[in-house]
Specification:
The chain has 177 residues and is an all-alpha fold. The radius of gyration is 18 Å and the shape is globular.
């Protein structure tokens, strides 16, 4: 019964990260905020482990989970928080990292020879058009300059791509998170 609400809870928690970062980062350094977020997450998961009597992963599985955590939380979220701290608007940061599925698909297609179905290409192009539409309103202004923090969300893309490669090569489709 509770499992049906997991996707909704995930989307709510994940999407509010940009909003929380926007309001917290004027008063705290990005990696301190990330550390606090991870401590809270650790407490919640330890409670869930005790309540649900979950099994601890073995050393090999724990190692894989540490690599995934490093790429997603330290590199991806660290890049997002640092970009917002450098005054890149949270909305622009969210839009740029929103391109991640498109870039990952293109890199997988070009670099790994993965084939995409027509419906996947249509979805990716629709996502690109949506992001372009939203970002184009900023281009309508008299002057447009590239923000110095704009490179950080692209580091986030690299992190997720590396994560996809890592999980595909070393875990062969096993669920690790």
């Amino acid at each position: 019964m509770l499992i049906r609400f997991v996707p909704l809870i995930f989307v709510l928690l994940w999407s509010t990260g940009f909003i929380g970062a926007r309001f917290a980062l004027p008063w705290i350094e990005p990696f301190n905020l990330l550390f606090i977020r991870m401590v809270i997450t650790l407490a919640v998961f330890l409670l869930l482990i005790l309540v649900l009597r979950a099994h601890w992963p073995g050393p090999r599985q724990a190692g894989h989970q540490m690599v995934v955590g490093l790429l997603i939380h330290a590199v991806y979220l660290g890049g997002v928080f640092a970009a917002i701290k450098l005054a890149l608007p949270a909305g622009v940061t969210a839009l740029v990292v929103g391109l991640q599925p498109l870039l990952t698909a293109l890199l997988a297609w070009a670099g790994m020879g993965q084939q995409l179905r027509r419906v996947q290409w249509v979805g990716l192009v629709a996502g690109l058009l949506g992001v372009s539409l939203v970002l184009s309103s900023g281009l309508m202004a008299q002057s447009f300059e590239v923000h110095p923090g704009l490179w950080l969300p692209y580091c986030c893309h690299c992190s997720v791509f590396l994560l996809a490669r890592y999980t595909r090569k070393s875990l062969v489709g096993r669920l690790i998170c």
